[in-house]
Write a structure and sequence with these properties.
There is one protein chain. With 293 residues, this protein is mainly alpha-helical. Among the domains are: 133 residues; 68 residues. The chain has five helices and three strands, in the order H-H-E-E-E-H-H-H. A three-stranded antiparallel beta sheet has the order 1-2-3. Helix 1 packs antiparallel against helix 2 and helix 4 runs antiparallel to helix 5. It holds the Pfam family TadE.
């Protein structure tokens, strides 16, 4: 089996000296940042200390001067004494109003501390700043004066008007559906049958009229020649009648052939009865033959 061996790196000659050089470079790069952070922490700590000292001195001086009979000088002395205990130098103390009487309502004490003369470092980052604190208290007077010293309450803000409700959008009317086109009516087979029957009736009437005209013409001819052709006229009349009957039969057959077959659903209307044929006029009596001479 292969055994893993840990090989130690060989030390280069002068390796410790090379490592020291890297450390010096790293320290040179990080030292300014470190010094800046430390100085900033010291400066902000001192400024916070001075702020609390000035705030406490202003409150104690105002609390000392609000009692009846206290003066402005007593308030300044009290504030200076407290600042000296905290190691604050060159502080400025202001008491307002300068004359405190029985009708004084409020007293305000202001303490200003310069950072230049109170910094822990000679060249501090906040040397040009000024710490200023003030405190305002009501004097201990009769209630009438104390009430007059109360600040006027701020007027209540007017309630915001309720927003008008947005009108609901009117629903759009749905488009009316277009009317469907009416289907074309199917042709009525009864109408066709009626038309065919009418045509057949007209044809029959025409044929009857023609027959009547022929009969009239034949009768006129018979009247003119009845002396010579009485027997022939009778035969012709019989033939004409037979021909008319044959024509009527043929027309009826043609009409039957032209009629369409009735559909099973609608029953066909009954055919009208054929009109009766007009009765032939009575033939005139033949004149007696002239007497033989």
């Amino acid at each position: 089996m292969n055994s893993f061996r840990i090989r130690r790196l060989k030390k280069l000659p002068g390796g410790s000296n090379l490592r020291r050089g890297v450390t010096v470079v790293e320290f040179a790069l990080t030292l300014p940042i470190l010094i800046t952070i430390v100085i900033g922490m010291i400066e902000f700590t001192r400024m916070n200390n001075l702020r609390h000292a000035a705030d406490n001195a202003a409150y104690e001086a105002a609390r000392h001067v609000v009692v009846p009979g206290a003066t402005k000088a007593e308030a300044e002395a009290e504030a200076q004494n407290l600042l000296a205990r905290a190691g604050v130098k060159n502080a400025t103390i202001t008491v307002t109003p300068s004359i405190i009487g029985e009708d004084t309502e409020n007293v305000t004490v202001t303490v200003n501390v310069p950072m230049m003369t109170n910094s822990w470092l000679p060249a501090g980052l906040t040397r040009d700043r000024l710490v200023s604190r003030e405190c305002t208290l009501m004097t201990e007077r009769v209630p009438v004066i104390q009430v007059a010293g109360l600040p006027e309450p701020e007027p209540e803000p007017e309630p915001e008007p309720e927003p008008e409700p947005e009108p609901e959008p009117e629903p759009e009317p749905e488009p009316e559906p277009e009317p469907e086109p009416e289907p074309e009516p199917d042709p009525d087979p009864d109408d066709d049958d009626d038309d065919d029957d009418d045509d057949d009736d007209d044809d029959d009437d025409d044929d009857d009229d023609d027959d009547d005209d022929d009969d009239d013409d034949d009768d006129d001819d018979d009247d003119d020649d009845d002396d010579d052709d009485d027997d022939d006229d009778d035969d012709d009349d019989d033939d004409d009648d037979d021909d008319d009957d044959d024509d009527d039969d043929d027309d009826d057959d043609d009409d039957d052939d032209d009629d369409p077959e009735p559909e099973p659903e609608p029953e066909p209307e009954p055919e009208p009865d054929p009109e009766p044929e007009p009765e032939p006029e009575p033939e005139p009596d033949p004149q007696p033959p002239p007497p033989m001479i």
